[in-house]
Structures are given as C-alpha cells and as structure tokens.
Amino acid sequence: MAQQQRSRNEDGPERSCIVSREVRAPHEMIRFVVGPDGVLVPDLKARLPGRGAWVTGEADVVREAVRRKAFARRLKTQVTVPPTLAEDVDRLLERDALQALSFANKAGEAVCGFTKVETAIGKGHVVMMLHAREAAADGVRKLEQAVRRRGDAAVERIIIAHAFAGDDLGLALGAPHVIHAALIAGPASTGFLARWRRLSCFRGPRPAESAGGAVRPSAPEADELHPSQRSASGHDG
C-alpha cells in the first residue's frame, strides 16, 4: 500500500529536482523520504516506501535544499532535516562505493600494491587506478609513467582517482593499508565505476586526470574507458 502512495511523477523514467526543477535520470539524483521517527532519510536505492523528494545528486544542491526548507514543502509534512545532510549522504555514497570495490576484489577484478598495479598496467587490463588520498606524489608519478610506457590509446584513458583514504581502501581490498590499487575490466568493476561516478559527481567538479595528462570531467567520461565498462551507470530502480 505504501509503495502505491508514490506519485506518478516518481514512477516515471525521470525525476524533477525540488531545488532547480531540472529533470534528470534517477541515477543522477538522490531520493529522500521521511523515516518513522520523522527524520529525513536518504534513499540511495530509491526503494523505500512513501512520498519521496528528489534532489540533483550534488552536495551543494542538497545543502541548498536544506537552506530553503524545500523538503517539508515537497513532502507536505513536518520533517526534521539534519543540518549535516550533505555530509551524511557523502558518507553513504562512499560506503556504497567501497562495498562495490570489495565485490570487485572478490571477483578478481581488483589488485592492490605498487608492484601488482604496475604489472596489471603492463598487461593492458586496467580501467582505473585508485590512489589513497595520502599517496606520495612520487609513487603516483611512477605508476602514471608505467601507463605512458604502454602507449596505446585505451590505456591512456585509464581513470585516476584519489577518492578514498588508505585505511578504507584496505578494508575493501582485504589488506591492512592500501596506497595504490587498480580495477581490471569486468562486470564487478563496472558496478564499482557506476558508484564511484555517483560519489564523484556528488562531491563536485574535482577533475579526474588521465594518465596521458589531459584533465577530464570526473564522471561522464568513465563510459569511454573500455567497451566492457559501458553501462547504465548504476540505476537502482
């Protein structure tokens, strides 16, 4: 019954942002609902029952929705909105991405450690390099040089990201502390890339840098990495 309360607009293929009124695909937005305790809850998978409020999946837009008190107007009810809502969503998106990275690791589509990453680059199977936020510039530079030595255009489009702390990478990859990791082309790494794109877009326009040196937008370009990586970018229904 509660599922049936969702509006016709919510059941369609696109959603309208309560702040900008811009219409976007669901995977580019964040849905929010009122929890049983009257507190606003992020619904990343867009599956929770009840009326939902959709916001463009960017931290600044979520903050603006909080500032304008837009959630109560859209949801037509009293709702407690945490002042840290954008930061809460960021943590949830990061956790979701790290879980997907763990799945990729279990599927044999991730490697970690400088030597293993360098070897994977040499084989031409890498679609993304992950460096811990605290990674030393020298190690990053050496791995980028390894990519350049490959020379072929496909490898030149490897995405390079510094989205996670080394301890968090380690937990996802089953190692104590990870500074360098790489994703190998495959279905599980495709799932991680979709979630990483969503996190990256939420955090804002911090450009990802290709190994070839060209600065590229962090999220949309990921679809061009490798034929096996082209997907629907993680629509959760």
From TrEMBL:
Q: Name one Pfam family in it.
A: YlxR
Q: Where is the composition biased (Basic and acidic residues)?
A: 223-237
Region (Disordered) residue ranges read 206-237
Sequence ranges assigned to domain YlxR in this UniProt record: 15-89
**Molecular-function GO terms, alphabetical:** DNA binding
What keywords appear on the UniProt entry? Answer: DNA-binding
Entry-linked InterPro entries: Ribosomal_eL30-like_sf, YlxR, YlxR-like_sf, YlxR_dom
Q: Which domain of life is it from?
A: Bacteria
Q: Which PANTHER family match?
A: BLL0784 PROTEIN, YLXR DOMAIN-CONTAINING PROTEIN
Recorded protein name is DNA-binding protein
User: What is the scientific name of the source organism?
Assistant: Chelatococcus reniformis
